Prior knowledge:
By secondary structure, this protein is an alpha/beta fold. It contains 30 helices and 32 strands. The strands form 10 sheets. A 7-stranded mixed beta barrel has the order 24-27-28-29-32-31-30. Strands 6-5-4-9-10 form a 5-stranded parallel β-sheet, with helices on both faces. The chain starts with 9 loop residues before the first strand and ends in an 8-residue tail after the last helix.
Amino acid sequence: MDTFPDFTPATLRVGARAYRIVDLPALGADYPRLPVVLRLLLENAVRHQRGAERAATVAALFDWLRDGASAAEIAFQPGRVLMHDTTSTPALVDIAAMRDALAEAGADPALLNPTLPVDVSVDHSLAVEVHARPDAARINIGHEIRRNGERYRFLRWAAGALRGVRIHPPGTGIMHTLNLEQLAVLVRELDLDGERWAAPDMMIGTDSHTPMINGIGVLGWGVGGLEAQTVMFGMPTMLRIPDVIGVELTGALPPGALATDLALTVTQRLRQIGVSGEFVEFFGPGVATLSAGSRAVVANMAPEYGATTGYFPPDERTLDYLRQTGRSSDALDLARAYLRRNGLWFDPQARPRYTRTITIALDDIASHAAGPRRPQDLLPLAGVPAALVASGPRAPGTPDGLPAYPVAIAAITSCTNTSDPALLIAAGLLARKARARGLAAAPWVKTSLGPGSPAAASYLRRAGLLDDLSAAGFDIVGYGCTTCIGNSGPLPERVAQAAQAGHARPVAILSGNRNFPGRVHPDLELGFLVSPPLVVAYALAGDAERDLAAEPLGFDADGAPVLLRDIWPTDEEIQACLDAGLDAADFARDFQAAQANPDWHALAAPSGTRFPWQPDSTILRRPPFAALDAGSLLGQYTAHPLLVLGDDVTTDHISPASAIPPDSLVADFLAARGEDRRDLNVFASRRGNWEVMLRAAFHSRSLVNLYAPVAPVAHTLHAPSGQTLPLWEAAARYRDAGLPVVLVAGERYGTGSSRDWAAKGQRLLGIRAVLALSFERIHRSNLIGMGILPLRLPPQWGPTRLKLAPGDRIEINAPASALRPRATVPVRVLRADGGQLAFDAIAAVETQLETELLAAGGVMPRILRHALDTAPERPDAA
């Protein structure tokens, strides 16, 4: 690093080793007033930037203290990228296609290589086909490898062809658990210009729950696959200096309250105050009472509470977790020395400057459920029955005893709650006590346990709880996202038939992070998020309408009622099992054993600089948008609305990940190409094939198109003809006629997972702009990455008030020359009857880089142009 006034590197000595570091406290007397997340951004900027750019960024970060807000933009350069198989597949397909485009333009395709380490966890494809049997995990992973072999061979090609890409095979666990247990180092050792440096571990991930790593003090957040591509190829990600919400925690969790309950409470409280994209940082004496595992649970749900981060500064409890998971003493010594020296160590008495603050008293936290359709809808257990009754028409139940609201799925699933050993231990203890009283899961419940990593089996076995969980139906079904991501497998036949006949409204109970209608299973509208032991309790009851706070879960052999409080584990019991079960050696040993998966290594992958596309593949097709001539969608134009949607349209609605219905048009398309419509796998497995994903766009039974309310799934009204058509067909007709189209939506458009196909599908449909009352952060970024302009509607002109009718058109005036961050964009609605409505929308564009991406037509044309501008000519590239 060059030396400038006030930016001279300091030396940190740890034992016999010396490190160069950015001397953060020396940058200004106000440094201790900055939130820790901004201190980390400051370190990143000073280490990567030079001269006037560096000085301007430092000044802007300190100026933030004046108002707790800023419009200034800063560059952030993470040290690594984390992906999972269903976000990495489309990103790597894009890269393979861009290599082809480079070769066709006369450049060397091998020049397109990631400049950062990229870790890919294969965790999103495991489905719960078999459950409640000891060999379920082996059978399920066998199905996974069989169904996804072609895609997995492609991932293995990418690992060989692209520098720095490392694939972690099926069975190694969920990406965020893997990050916590194996990849994160808290403080990294770097070689910069021949000198040994120490710097914070900072990263991004192509999954919205990447902030889970914030729980152990590593700054990271989720981005779309498109934004990750720019970072992978050496371009920084640009962001406006964020507002930072301080969440003060006081007191301590009372007996019986769990980290899940705190996470759900935080979600409710922050959604109440309208958090949308801000950084969140936890402070106050209550933080010190929480284990690192508990903090990670709360941090994980940052996207659910609307935040970019949910950051906990590190302390000794953080280092306890790193030690517990097998990190070396040298790594812990370096982390402690560096963080203390640079003012990044947690101080329970500190009160930095925040944009705004709220206080949550841990003493008030109790057992909760969230649902039945959104994570922020918090309920006491006693409130669940009323919420179900209020959710829609009541079903009568069946004569053979199936209740009106049967628990169809009870899943201990997702990184959110299975990464904290205390929560799995608590579930095992409740299962043990239920077993002792003679209780088991109701026969119609599909039970499953999908831990975040294989180490969970080791500590549960050592604590003596695996058999108890098995007795309750919770055998391990594999190590992956399973039910949380929608890979729940088929519903129990008895429940499916009752639901189809209208006799029951089945409910999902899961320890996951999202319960949007259709998320867990396309036929399930209702779901509740609860802690792992409560998942077991609801499975025992079998009836989601039962008040678990007061009514029995069941009756023992003597006919005595068994209440939840009778079998709820105590904190002392949980700690005793943790002490007995945890062994630091498990984490590395079990991970290495899973890495050696013989079925994975037996897959024969192609080799070579360019991927050999197969024209008859239904899994992998070269996408048309990974091209130099994609073209900008900006300009002045008059468009037809292709879709008009309401509030809370999720990325699951826009681009589903769950099972492909065998009676759908997507299934027809695949069956016509030789696929078995009874075994089509999930939508997420087809994200390498743009033709399938185009037809999958907006394929959701719970999505209402206000433009054509009675249209079938994934259909719309084609205004010029008056016909109701499949979306992709209507879009093709508009395109062939040279008629632009746009989409109109309500609040929180694009909430949910960070899937770039939610934006890619809209680009393929020809959508030039999305007009919505508000956008979720990652989807907004993905739209821009595909060249689609996001426009914020005035609050008084949402889709309900606009009342767009067939024949109405929308005029947008957004030329590239006039576009600026948060610019005003004139909009006119031209009614079919000759009337007009004019208003100003706001471009939901946060940085100058985003305006450049829109002008270029998106991320991929920009990457290709950059590669061509810097690469030597190579006539023989083809």
